[in-house]
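INTERNAL AUDIT FORM
Audit reference: QA-55
Scope: verify that the stored structure record matches its stored sequence.
Auditor: D.O.
Record contents follow.
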Amino acid sequence: MCANYGKYRYLCKWKSKTSHSIVMLTQIYNGHILTPEGWINGGSVLFEDGRIVEVSRSSHVVEQADKAIDARGSHVLPGGIELHCHGGGGSDFMEGTAEAFRIAAHTHLRHGTTAIYPTLSSATLPMMDAACATCQELMKQPGTTIMGLHLEGPYLNPRKAGAQMPEIIRTPDPAEYTHIVEDYDCVRRWDVAPELPGAVEMGRYITSKGIVAAIAHTAAEYPEVKAACEAGYTLATHFYNGMPGFHNVREYKHAGTVESVYLMENMSVEMITDGIHVPPTILRLIHRMKGVERTALVTDALALTDSDSDKAFDPRVILEDGVCKLSDRSALAGSIATMDRLIRTAVNLADIPLRDAVRMASETPARIMGIYDRKGSLQRGKDADMMIMNDDLRLQAVFSMGQRVED
């Protein structure tokens, strides 16, 4: 326990009295805690007013604790950060309503996603306006898990549309994307096919505004990927999905998007870790080639995730074999995975060490999105976002800003 804790506690009590608010100190003890320095066996995490006060090697319950929770040796981990999620609980972010956003975000929160970037598939301008307005308002609410909007399209290659609605896909329109960026303060990431006319210029523009530029649904080869990287694109969307690998053009062999991204040292990747979109052997390959610091786990989950409904937002989508597909079986359309499943799949099927899997679900996404100063690891001063998992990697509890999440 830090030597200054008693003084800190006194100041907090004084502050709570003057602000007429109750500040509760909670301690999770006897945990197997993952920190940036490694594992702590039998340690404690203390948090108060939504922030972590101390991560300690001691399992002793401190006298000042208002509430003590025995982790019973389970893994105490930073909360997951979801970069790519379309919906859950029967609701899709494409609906653009506050209710849909709240239902989908809470569905994933219950499974360990304590920070989320709602994803919009290729959409019309009115649909983007509605989602942006809703997201912007929800981001202002205290304790929100919604960090900002992720736009997956509509500026994608129609030859690599996958489950995107082909009639909505179009080339980058400066008037359209500058309106979205200038009139709303919620877009944090935008996915574009880099080979499209104007994509390089768009990448320079959005990154100048602090928006993460990602390449997606693309047929780009090495020259286009390299140009995109130089223009500020730093992320490859659902790596291996919606992009070609090594292939022939007539009698000549070409490096695809996949190999080109591997060669871009400064480009990170996200991988759908449901064990279906990308085979476990390829998950292991990505981890080995790109490393923990450049790989993020994502769900790419649709509204059917953890839902009693069998109706998808897109009427073309069906649920079959534990994954969402287009009804003609021409493409996968998204997953029904949740954050806890991502970690189990990475560890149990892809043989990725638990520490690496958790970092790719928390620390790496936080770094990619520029929020590692407050989220993504269990450290003093950061948000008290965490999950407790047993040895079978089943969730025991989730905490968001220090509050235990209930169904």
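Auditor finding: record pair retrieved intact. The first strand starts at residue 25 and ends at 35.
Action required: none
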